[in-house]
């Protein structure tokens, strides 16, 4: 009986000690976002979208080309896709825009469609506009020499 | 009633001369002022969104656009774009708008679903009206003649200059700038009743 109680107390102390040891460990991990994961997200900052520019070169071969213009207020809904108003094959010449890649015309079974596949409808999921925000971390990435 | 008024007015005019003219003049001012005040009141944002049809649909969409809120706080409210400023066109538009009272009573667009079903027709009405008056409501504030192309973006610069050369009007390109668009035919996915490409991008008048 006495022994049992003692073991229990020892186990309790041990677990408390582990917890106390773990606490400083957790504090040494700092996230790029600046606050704890469970804390409310800090304000994103007052970033502006960069003004129109010529096409931005890709940083690596498979990179979806970046959007070199503002997209504020652009409607991409079930009714209308503002991107395709200039980048579709029927519109790009008049708009002076880059035409959407033919790879986007395939449906998920590999069948060819006459226009972009509905699964490629939300352009801004991959093609992102640029803001004047500074990079959060330093990046020394360079593409492989053969494809630079 | 009007006969009596005329008679008594005429008699008073003879009897009182200047006094009557002054009274008629004042009454005229009050009547005209009252008429204009009511007319102006029906041009306010509060009046427009006193109906839930406007408040819950088009007003909500407009709240996300630059004409509702922007850097300098200069705004364009409903009537700035949808009611002509010039007196005669304004009266014509106001009289046409009585048709909307019928729609209100019948509940034509009293749910978001019904509104969506009518959006195509409603949008085309407004595009037709603005095309017919050379986008006058846009031009009340924005004029082609005073564009400074050097501070416009690469794309807007090009589009505005070629648009001006081709005799296009604002609404030919700037559709859906303050409200969501109706379905536009872009040949993506299934076919549905939609605005055709030549309505959405009217061909230039000088080709």
Automatic annotation (TrEMBL), chain A:
Positions annotated to bind heme c 1: 69, 83, 86-87
InterPro entries, per the entry: Multihaem_cyt_sf, NapB
Gene Ontology molecular-function annotations: metal ion binding
Entry PTM: Binds 2 heme C groups per subunit.
A Pfam family the protein falls into: NapB
Lyase is among the record's keywords: no
Ranges for region Disordered: 36-64
Gene Ontology cellular component list: periplasmic space
Entry superkingdom: Bacteria
Biological process annotations from GO: anaerobic respiration
Record keyword Transport present: yes
Localization per record: Periplasm
Residues holding heme c 2: 104, 123, 126-127
SUPFAM superfamilies, A to Z: Multiheme cytochromes
Signal peptide: 1-26
Keywords of the record: Electron transport, Heme, Iron, Metal-binding, Periplasm, Signal, Transport
Main location: periplasm
Described purpose of this protein according to its UniProt entry: Electron transfer subunit of the periplasmic nitrate reductase complex NapAB. Receives electrons from the membrane-anchored tetraheme c-type NapC protein and transfers these to NapA subunit, thus allowing electron flow between membrane and periplasm. Essential for periplasmic nitrate reduction with nitrate as the terminal electron acceptor.
Similarity comment: Belongs to the NapB family.
Subunit structure: Component of the periplasmic nitrate reductase NapAB complex composed of NapA and NapB.
Protein's UniProt name: Periplasmic nitrate reductase, electron transfer subunit
Source organism per UniProt: Pseudothauera lacus
TrEMBL record, chain B:
Major site of localization recorded for this protein: membrane
Domain NapC/NirT cytochrome c N-terminal, chain residue ranges per copy: 18-182
InterPro entries documented for this protein: Cytochrome_c-type_ET, Multihaem_cyt_sf, NapC/NirT/NrfH, NapC/NirT_cyt_c_N, NapC/NirT_cytc_sf
Membrane-crossing residue ranges in chain numbering: 15-35
Binding positions for heme 4 per the UniProt entry: 170, 173-174
Keyword set, alphabetical order: Cell membrane, Electron transport, Heme, Iron, Membrane, Metal-binding, Transmembrane, Transmembrane helix, Transport
PTM comment text: Binds 4 heme groups per subunit.
Top-level division of the source organism's lineage: Bacteria
Cofactor binding note from Swiss-Prot or TrEMBL: Binds 4 heme groups per subunit.
Binding of heme 1, residues: 48, 51, 54, 100
Chain residues that bind heme 2: 78, 81-82, 179
GO terms under cellular component: plasma membrane
Topology relative to the membrane: Single-pass membrane protein
Gene Ontology biological-process entries: anaerobic respiration; denitrification pathway
The protein, known as: Cytochrome c-type protein
Organism: Pseudothauera lacus
């Amino acid at each position: 009986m006495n022994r049992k109680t003692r073991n229990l107390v020892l186990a309790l102390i041990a677990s408390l000690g582990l917890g106390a040891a773990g606490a400083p460990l957790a504090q040494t991990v700092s996230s790029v976002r600046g606050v704890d994961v469970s804390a409310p997200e800090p304000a994103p900052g007052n970033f502006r979208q960069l003004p129109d520019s010529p096409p931005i070169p890709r940083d690596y071969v498979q990179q979806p080309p970046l959007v070199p213009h503002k997209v504020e207020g652009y409607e991409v809904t079930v009714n209308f896709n503002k991107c395709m108003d200039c980048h579709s094959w029927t519109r790009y010449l008049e708009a002076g825009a880059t035409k959407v890649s033919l790879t986007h015309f395939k449906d998920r079974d590999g069948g060819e469609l006459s226009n972009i596949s509905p699964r490629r409808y939300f352009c801004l999921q991959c093609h992102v506009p640029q803001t004047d925000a500074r990079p959060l971390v330093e990046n020394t990435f360079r593409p492989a020499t053969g494809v630079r | 009633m009007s006969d009596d008024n005329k008679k008594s007015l005429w008699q008073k005019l003879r009897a009182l001369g200047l006094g009557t003219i002054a009274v008629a003049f004042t009454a005229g001012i009050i009547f005209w002022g009252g008429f204009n005040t009511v007319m102006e009141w029906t041009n306010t944002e509060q009046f427009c969104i006193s109906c839930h049809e406007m408040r819950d649909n088009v007003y909500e969409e407009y709240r996300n656009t630059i004409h509702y809120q922007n850097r300098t706080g200069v705004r364009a409210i409903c009537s700035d774009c949808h009611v002509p400023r010039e007196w005669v066109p304004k009266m014509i538009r106001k009289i046409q708008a009585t048709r909307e009272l019928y729609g209100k009573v019948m509940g034509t667009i009293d749910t978001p679903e019904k509104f969506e079903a009518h959006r195509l027709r409603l949008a085309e009405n407004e595009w037709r009206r603005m095309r017919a008056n050379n986008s006058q409501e846009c031009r009340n504030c924005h004029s082609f003649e005073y564009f400074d192309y050097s501070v416009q973006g690469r794309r807007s610069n090009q589009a505005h200059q070629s648009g001006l050369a081709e005799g296009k009007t604002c609404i030919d390109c700037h559709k859906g700038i303050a409200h969501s668009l109706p379905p536009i035919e872009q040949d993506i996915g299934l076919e549905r009743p939609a605005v055709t490409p030549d309505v959405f991008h009217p061909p230039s008048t000088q080709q």
